[in-house]
Prior knowledge:
Largest sheet: 6 strands, antiparallel
Strand order of the largest sheet: 7-6-11-10-9-8
Number of helices: 19
Structural class: alpha+beta
Strand content: 25-35%
Shape: elongated
Number of strands: 34
Amino acid sequence: MITARATATFEPVGRSVAAARAFVRDTLQGWGHPELVDDAVVLTSELVTNAVVHAGTAADVLCLRSEDSVRVEVADRYPEREIPVQSGRTIASPDRENGRGLLLCAALADRWGVDYSPTRKHVWFHLDLPQRPVGTRSAGPVLPDALLPVADSRVRVAVVQIDRDGAITSWSEDAEELFGYAPEQVTGKPLGDLAAWPHTPGIGTGLAEALRLSRWEGSYGLRRSDGRVIPVYASHLRVRDAEGEPSTVCLLVREEERAVLQTPQRPAADPGAESRATDPFEVFIGSPAPDDLDGLLQRTVERARDMLDGDAAFLLLATDDETELEVRATTGLPAARQRFARVPVETGASRYGSARMPAVHEDLAAVPGAVPLLEGTGMRSVVTVPLKVEGRLTGSLGVAAESANRYSNEEALRLQFAADRIALAVESARLGELERLRRGSLSFLVEASDLLAGTLDRDQTLALMAQMTVPTLATWCAVYTIADPASEPYLSYVLHEDEDRIDGLKDLLGSIAPPDPVPAPGARLWTAPGDAAHRAALAASARELDHLGSPLSSGIDTALATAGAVAGETVVLPLVARNRVIGMLTLGRPAEDHFRQEILELAEDLSRRAALALDNARLYSERNAISQSLQRSLLPPDLPKIPGVEVDVIYRAAGEGNEVGGDFYDVFPIRENVYGFAIGDVCGTGPEAAAVTGLARHALRLLAREGFGGPAVLERLNTAILDEGARSRFLTLLYGELHPQADGSAVLKVVCAGHPLPLRLRPDGTVTPAAEPQPLLGVMEDLELSEETFTLAPGDVLLCVTDGVTERREGTRMLGDDGLAEALKTCTGLTAGAVGGRILRAVERFAQAPASDDMAILTMRLQEPDPS
């Protein structure tokens, strides 16, 4: 039975793919199924791409939720397209561009298929909902009194209710007794204001995140009214009232009394469970849900510590090749020893020599370096045991104490027995986490590739690189770029998840030498920022002592905060494109956290895509700069000052990024009191036409200044164009010479070779053609042209345009020579610049679509004598 549905239609344009992904993601998250988002987004992306890109039709996306699954349908309007067939099976080949979405459906979906109708084709897939048992009850076995948890004679359970913004709305009597605040003192304030250390040790979930979850259990510290910190164990449950307003109910007890709230574990289902029920480790470790790896690991180390009455415990997981162990959970150890630090497995100096076999170290002072994780922690004795699944090393569990000679082989056997029972659950949860990470990484890289492919702007590419890594992969990010192999790396972009620290981070990184541009793939550690942060912190601390309470204190606090932000682990990944290092991507985390290998591998994948996008943006910018420079060289320099004559030019090249096209103009002095002018149109647009433009403009100047008349200039230019062979193009050209006269008039000699005729506007509004048409250039070898001579009186205007003006179209209508003449009649009394502007507006108003041809408008007006 269908319980919910959502649908949307996406147009056949590239941006629709990203919009469809966002629609499916928002729908599934709104339905409360975030665990299905990654698979559904990847499949939807491929299927919508097939519809809008390959099929070229609109895509209809339908999401349906039933009691046990979610179904997503993608339909296009191209039903006759065939399904790719390989070896008799309806599955696409991975080497083919089309059909890849069906291959992904076969790999990721629980069920999928294709339905045809007379008007469209549907590709659908089902993703089964995870099993969520409701109402399951659990109970612990009967225990001797000595094994029961210890609690005060009066156990107090604080009940605190939090609204959707995290503010306290209810504060019980036990809460007042535990923390010393009356209800009126805390009501309306965020619970986070009372938090002293809001992170559960060894777990990334903080108090703010925990309050947004539907259910959560964990530890954190709250500060009493007298300033003392009370470690508490909390159980959070998110509820909503009759009006639908959500809130969170928090039950809190002292940390040492957490057995009161801690969820009991399900008893073992095998027949021997009852006989082993009195084993303490069975009771305290249990088997938490395998899909919560962090919770499982943290609970394991805490119970292992309690079982052996230790001061600290730790659990490490092996990498896939079993050469290193990664710290995944600790208790009782400094924060710097937590989360994703790595140590080698094999024996040797500073190696973890006890990973593959149970081991007891009675006194670590006698064997320094035997357990690198415990160096400098004050721990003296330790027992470690391996976690193995089917004979393969999957991890290591250890318990340590501050006193020597604390543990014997008996404790090692007890710990090994417990480790054997928990190893399979840990490995299952680890594999589940890796699978979720893999699918999440695939979705992340799809989005990243989409964003990077959508721009060729260098600065925007740099910003996207940083924004995709922070905070998803790192706390802060810096991008260095290298202009050429001989240049030094340059700090181009810096981003921190806390915007207030960006400037300080930029100053800190600017004060140290950039990392070496090593082309070797993979991430490498970079200690320079941490060292610089340490020096800055020492200097700031010294200044703080000298200026305590002075106005400088805020600046010192900023310096200390910046130093703390960079004091953690920093890695550098090369940005390599086309076998050249073009920059470095630098990622940093805070001191208490380490990069895990899966994150580094994802960052490496991202860096490869980002490097290519950045290099493409660089090449585009360089090509664009060269193109614009060359195009500007084809335009004439500033127009000359002609006594008594106003000259104005308006030029518009068709095509994005083009400054010069097939149309050109020129006004230049030939000799004293004689000026040449030209306006022409090369067949076509773009760079090929611009090349003939350059030839024509420079040839005109050279021939005119050699003393050739108009017909001779154009005949020689015609020969030069024909000599270009296959690169030659037709050319229409209006060329003339202007001879200003002492009485304010001007004699013009013009040749119009296949070009739109120049128009003459008299002060009384009369418009007439000022020349006769003649053959265009670049067609015939033996070309004979003639020159026409006429006189412009003061106040007369000569308008010369290219066919981009006269051939402006709107449907079947064209502006034409008559439309241009009508527009020119309205320009009496205007200056040359005003005439050109009014003509341009008339052309633009004639049609709504952007111009598809180049346009040039050359206007000359003889000034009238001053009446005074």
